[in-house]
Design goal:
By secondary structure, the chain is an alpha+beta fold. It contains eight helices and six strands.
Length: 179
Amino acid sequence: MHPVIAGRWSARSLDPAAEVTRAELLAVIEAARVAASWGGTFPVRFLAGLRGDTTHAALAALLTRGNLRWAPAAGALVLCAVATSNAKGDLPYAMFDAGLATAQLSLQAVAQGLIAHPMSGFDRAGARQAFDIPDSVEPVVLIALGHLAAERTNERDLEPRRRPALREVLFGEAWGQEF
């Protein structure tokens, strides 16, 4: 496995003093922008704020209680949203496109020495209202982008990463039959 892929994890122990620069933020968004997209539609859009600006504060205010404990320390907060239709009609794979873009953003972050932690725990209706997001665009995920703290203070960061064994996720000939 490539070291960038192996090194990706969703840490919560972010350094509240470390900055994410505008250039670092633009690089991870550029990596997301070039992700594969169904029919070349690329329905994914981003709204971002750097710690200390009003957008970061407004995004942090949307976090649910668990994420509110750690995510405001991120040097940047990024809202990923998708257009659910365009001039061609409905975009049935928009959420898949958002996943691909978020994955590429996360891998670029690792390559830059950053942590990217996608979160579903935020107020989508509040995001729509706070940022005048049109009805045709769906907020999907809020991403904390930052630098790992010198000391892991979040208990979940101390636990080993758990994933099912390959034989549990890859089948051959029939569902559930080992490849």
